[in-house]
Amino acid sequence: MRSGPRSLARRALVVGTLFLTGALGGCGVLPPMPEPVPSDIVPSTPVGLSPAAGGDALSPDGFDAVERMAVRIRNVGCEELSTGSGFAIDEHTLITNKHVVADSKDLEVSTYDGHDITVGATSTAGLADLAVVRTTDPLPSHPELAGSDPKPGDPVTVVGYPAGGELTVTEGEVMGTTRDPLNANLGEVLLTDAPVEPGSSGSAALDDKGRVIGVVYAKTADDNSLLVPLSTLQDMLADDTAFTPAKGC
Amino acid sequence: MTEAPVVAAPGPARAPGPRRGSRWLAVLLVATIAVGAYLWVTTVRWQRSSAEWEGKAHEYAEEVASLRMQLDGANTELQAARDQLSTATARITDLANEKAQLGDENVASQQYLDYQTQVSAAAATVASALGQCVSGQEQLVGYLKDADQYEAADLGRYERQVGALCEDAEQANQALQRELRP
Prior knowledge:
The complex is a heterodimer of chains A (249) and B (182).
Chain A (H helix, E strand, L loop, with lengths): L4 H22 L38 H4 L1 E7 L4 E10 L2 E4 L1 H4 L4 E6 L4 E2 L1 E7 L5 E5 L19 E6 L7 E12 L8 E5 L11 E3 L5 E8 L5 E5 H9 L4 E3 L4
Antiparallel strand pairs in A: 1-2, 1-4, 2-3, 3-7, 4-5, 6-7, 6-14, 8-9, 8-11, 9-10, 10-13, 11-12, 12-13
Chain B lengths: L16 H129 L6 H28 L3
Helix pairs in contact in B: 1-2
């Protein structure tokens, strides 16, 4: 028997259709059944979210850490009254200048929020304008010490009580080192352009990370500020004989 | 060598053409119906899934709109709270400063009071010593008017005593002057 052209065409069509059907199904061109709709598509942990801006600046009472560690020191002398600044280096220890606590009958320390801190022993350094004041009451906050002395051009922030007034934060940058014009410190001291006033003595000088890089102790005639460098402070603190009990008036 | 030619043996007779074509058409029809049924079921399922997803999308859209409103409200409240906190911290700083200034004034007033007390005490001492000096000198003048009636040694001793009183008065006066610092 012979097959005609129509039969051949029909066969080709069937084969083609079957081939196409198999290919469509096998290659996934035919749409699959939909997945069941999940009842909840909300992820349990949002991805890629970060805390709101400014969240790292929060503190227990809205004050910055640099403000919380600063203290105001009232030196009640036998005849005179003077004020200065200081800062905590641990829960019961303050750093300030020797001349801030000199000739004192009584030291009165208050914090950024006006709380009075009971003071214990006071000791002063012989070779630097530094003093250590131990407190009976705990101090609210204390900063870290930087790893090394700052370099010229580094930013500096000074936190203290200029002229015995409000707690003030001023900024500037390190200008370099110089010989101590007052001869109150052994070695070189830091010169910065951060503005200070009488009463700022004993203020902490901080770097851009809030770490202590020095202690303000004087201002120059051209309104620059002088700091006892961090290295001197660390040397003094490491030397058990560097500080001796302060003499009152 | 030549091989004998191979002659194909005649095979079985083939089915007639139209029957085979019908079978193929039947297969094609079944396949088409199967594919069509599959597509119909798939379409219905996808429609249902799409409707569910759309419903869920509307539900989440409403939730997003609600959360946006809540977020706006929360942000407004947060800003207000931040403003209040800023005001409160500024006020705390002011109050701490006022307290410190009052403390300074109190200490300064106490020191001035102590100074005034010391000055008053020194002035009283001067006044008393001067009084004793003057009194002694008056007494000495009286004795000297009737010097004949007294032993010279007694008069000399009394004069030295009066001199000591006046010296004390002088020292008290110098102490007072030191207290009266500028």
